[in-house]
Amino acid sequence: MLGPIIGVIGGSVADPPILEMARAVGRGIGKRGGILVTGGLGGVMEAASRGAKEEGGLVLGILPGSQARQANPWVDIPIVTGLSDARNTIIARTAAVLIAIDGSYGTLSEIAFALKFDKPVISLQSWQIDPRIIEQTNAEEAVELAFQLAKAK
């Protein structure tokens, strides 16, 4: 049986420590049998996707463009939207829980949609714009909490 769908959101460009954190989050999701959903591109999205695949996880990529080949190489199922940044609402709707890692305004929009849709948001060095965002300091604890919150939904 497949586990919950956990979203990982963050920038398409990030520093190495952030990328390693994203990869660790992805590994944790894959190890627990969760399904990872990301924006399917590079940076945090690619690092999390790689980590999930390393542990045998399933990776969905909700792509902003109109070609599946835009997906990073770790995406199992590319969802082509042609919606540009509007695809962020699909990511927020699809995930049971979102883990935000670093990121800029695209990440902020995904967080805002998730909060609007009453989805839990966990932050790892990301935006703290609302008291409902749960701040965590390490990947393992963030993943454990994400699975607990997904189970409670």
What is the CATH architecture descriptor? 3-Layer(aba) Sandwich
Which bin fits the share of residues in helices? 25-40%
How does the overall form come out from the CA principal axes?
A: globular
Question: Which strand order spans the largest sheet, edge to edge or round the barrel?
Answer: 4-3-2-1-5-6-7
Radius of gyration: 13 Å
The count of strands amounts to 7
Number of helices: 5
Tell me the major beta sheet: 7 strands, parallel
Ends distance: 17 Å
Strand-pairing-aware structural class: alpha/beta
How much strand? 15-25%
**Average of pLDDT:** 98
CATH C-level label: Alpha Beta
Low-confidence segments? none
What is the string of helix and strand elements? Answer: EHEHEEHEHEEH
Q: Under CATH, the topology is which?
A: Rossmann fold
How many discrete structural domains?
1
Please give a structural write-up.
The protein contains five helices and seven strands. With 153 residues, it is an alpha/beta fold. The protein has a single domain, classed as 3-Layer(aba) Sandwich (Rossmann fold), CATH 3.40.50.450. The protein has a seven-stranded parallel sheet with strand order 4-3-2-1-5-6-7, sandwiched between helices. β1, α1 and β2 (35-38) form a beta-alpha-beta unit. The protein starts with a strand and ends with a helix. The model has no long low-confidence stretch (mean pLDDT 98).
Produce the secondary structure layout.
Layout: E1 5-10, H1 16-31, E2 35-38, H2 44-54, E3 58-63, E4 77-80, H3 87-94, E5 97-101, H4 105-116, E6 121-124, E7 134-136, H5 139-152
Parallel strand pairs: 1-2, 1-5, 2-3, 3-4, 5-6, 6-7
Helix pairs in contact: 1-2, 1-5, 3-4
